[in-house]
Amino acid sequence: MPTSATARDTAPAFDRRGVPAAGPPVIIDAVSKVYSNGTKALDHVAFTVADREFVTLVGPSGCGKSTLLRMVAGLGSPTSGEITVFALPPAEARKQQGGATFVFQDPTLMPWRSVLANVTLPLELRGVDPAVRAQEGMLALELVGLAGSARAYPRQLSGGMKMRVSIARAMAVHPQLLLMDEPFGALDEITRQRLDRELQSLWARSRLTVLFVTHNVFEAVFMSTRIVVMSPQPGRVAGVVAVGVPFPREDAFRSSPEFGRLVQRVTELLAGAGVDGLAGDA
Amino acid sequence: MTRAVSRSALAHIGREYLPPVAFGVLFIAVWYAIIIALRVPGFILPSPGAVVAAAVKNSGGLSHAILRTFLEAMGGFVLSVIVGVALALLMSQSKVIERSLYPYAVILQTIPIVAIAPVIIVWFGPGVPSILTVSFILALFPIISNTTLGLISTDHNLLNLMELNEASRSQLLVKLRIPYALPYIMGGLRIASGMAVIGAIVGEFVGGIGGVQGGLGYLIVATASMLQMGYLFAAALAACGMGILMFVAMNGVSYLMLRNWHESSVQREN
Fold this sequence. Notes:
The complex is a heterodimer of chains A (about 280) and B (about 270).
Chain A: H1 2-9, E1 26-34, E2 40-49, E3 54-58, H2 65-72, E4 80-85, H3 90-93, E5 100-103, H4 115-119, H5 121-125, H6 130-143, H7 159-171, E6 177-181, H8 189-206, E7 209-214, H9 217-223, E8 226-231, E9 236-242, H10 257-270
Parallel strand pairs in A: 3-7, 3-8, 5-6, 6-7
Antiparallel strand pairs in A: 1-2, 1-4, 8-9
Helix pairs in contact in A: 6-7, 9-10
Chain B: H1 2-38, H2 48-57, H3 59-93, H4 95-107, H5 113-124, H6 128-152, H7 156-164, H8 169-207, H9 216-225, H10 229-258
Helix pairs in contact in B: 2-10, 3-4, 3-6, 3-8, 3-9, 3-10, 5-6, 5-8, 6-8, 8-9, 8-10, 9-10
């Protein structure tokens, strides 16, 4: 079983074996996207995501941030420009063991599968040995604190728990790049803040690179090392805000003057009133 | 604990079954009342007692006819499931095939089968082959249309998830499309099971063989022509009962297959 052996190789997990060491994990180079109906969704978007960064794309609905993230996952391709993931085209990069995985806005679970069977689905599709994938699945569930619900079915879980199962499924393949499309957008504010904290600690522990999409400015500031602010119609980079606050960030960060200042900065960029905004439009 | 459970179970049975049983009793009472009040002669509307008496008197012929019709309906049903699901799977595999066949699968449902049943008799001759064919055709379309609908309405995000994980065509079908379509397929089977019974009886109307080989459809036609109203009602009621039984059985199968996850089979607390 060569595939199961591969899974075991990366089992100590979350280190960066087998990845081309040089260069940032994600390079987005002058990417434009025109939909088949003629709508221009993205216009010359360019930025990179460095190794172990947590980069967040913030923008209003219709700024093409989800479209961009999906293209980084290899779902659809740019009309012009180029996206490279681990120095490969996105559709190639996701085939690599432990390359990029995608977390959808909805939990996107199969209701007929137990929690564990949902988490191990990607391993099952790769032909990993059942015993190995059960073990890997349990490890991934422990990561999100849901090992006790392995035998439950999705309908028995709350919205927040379903989202954690979805994250566990993404983590089960030991990705080096996690692409997250407004994963907590449908949750209530209290649950969202708790999952933000959990994701942050997961990220810090596992040394992942994360590209995260949200329209929530507070979430972006709390989570990110860098925020790419996008303007809509067509989607452009309105500006980039670095968040230099060290990790782990406690809840107290949310009420600090620094937090308020960063939120204001991002909000200004979103409103098109940034002092040095629109600089990223290259 | 046990007592509490059994009491709530009893209460549940009471809530579930008491109203329909009460209605049934009321129905029979009204039936009797009409016969007595309006002095309806037995050759127009037999009393419930006369129906039971006729059923008992002719129990041999009746049970024979029931078994025969049941086997024909089951045959038509099983054939329709096999062919219907296979055709739907074929359509789901190719957009071209789906576009060319699906509209017909929908439109053909509206064909009044009674109108073409004589044609089938001409082709296959009277007897089991014709009856099976009518039953099969009637049961086929709900299965094709429901299964196809289920197979083509797969959740878009789940499809993306499979694509991101490089799922093969067969993995996509077996691990996503078919399970996703299962509630739809079950809905189709439920309709088809009833249609198969109707098809078998219609087939026997037009192409049934008399004597010991006759099923319920033949019996209904024969007893009606001889004004044996008690026997006719017994046969018709047996046909109803068979349809209901098939429906209930399919509900049971559907519940067993979906109980863990689908809304239709999940018990709600509120």
